[in-house]
Amino acid sequence: MTYPLEATKERCGQECGGWCCKNKLIVLMTKDEATRLKKLNHKAMITQGMNTEKWAMAIIPQCIFLTDENLCGIHEQRPDACRQWPYTASRGCLLWPKEVG
After folding, report:
1. What is the per-residue DSSP string for 13-65?
2. What are the φ and ψ backbone dihedral angles of 61, each rounded to 5 degrees?
3. In terms of pLDDT, which residue wins out, 10 or 91?
4. Residue 91 in 3-state DSSP?
5. Cβ distance 19 to 92 under 8 Å?
6. Which end of the chain has the least Cβ crowding within 10 Å, N or C?
7. How far apart are CA 83 and CA 7, in angstroms?
8. Which residues contact 59 (CB under 8 A, 6 or more apart)?
């Protein structure tokens, strides 16, 4: 079996309920990504990090782009950090079977 499993609407949205998008996280991104997301929703909590070129979006209590169906509302435009998730076994994430996470 290959790890992690493929992220699908069924696995992430329906089975999991969008756990990673409701877990009080900080998503790091580039200035270009931050600008793009702010244009999509001006209420997104995005700030520039101190002494760094990275920007951050707070996922509190959940991602502002998460739909009522627990799917990513900006899937094609999501930041690289979201595209790469999960890059390691994460408790609660269905992409990593229990024996791994």
Report:
1. IIII-SGGGSS-EEEEE-HHHHHHHHHH-TTS-EEEPTTSS-EEEEESSS-TT
2. -75, -15
3. 10
4. coil
5. yes
6. N
7. 10
8. 21, 22, 23, 24, 25, 26, 27
pLDDT for the residue numbered 49: 75
**Residue showing tokens 């991104």:** 29
Looking at residue 62, its pLDDT comes to 87
With beta carbons less than 8 A apart as the criterion, state whether 23 and 59 touch: yes
* Amino acid at position 42, single letter: H
* Phi, psi angle pair for 56, to nearest 5°: -140, 145
| pTM above threshold 0.90 | no
Q: What is the rounded distance in angstroms from the CA atom of residue 77 to the CA atom of residue 34?
A: 11
The two tokens of residue 27 are 């998503």
**Extents of the domains making up the chain:** 24-80
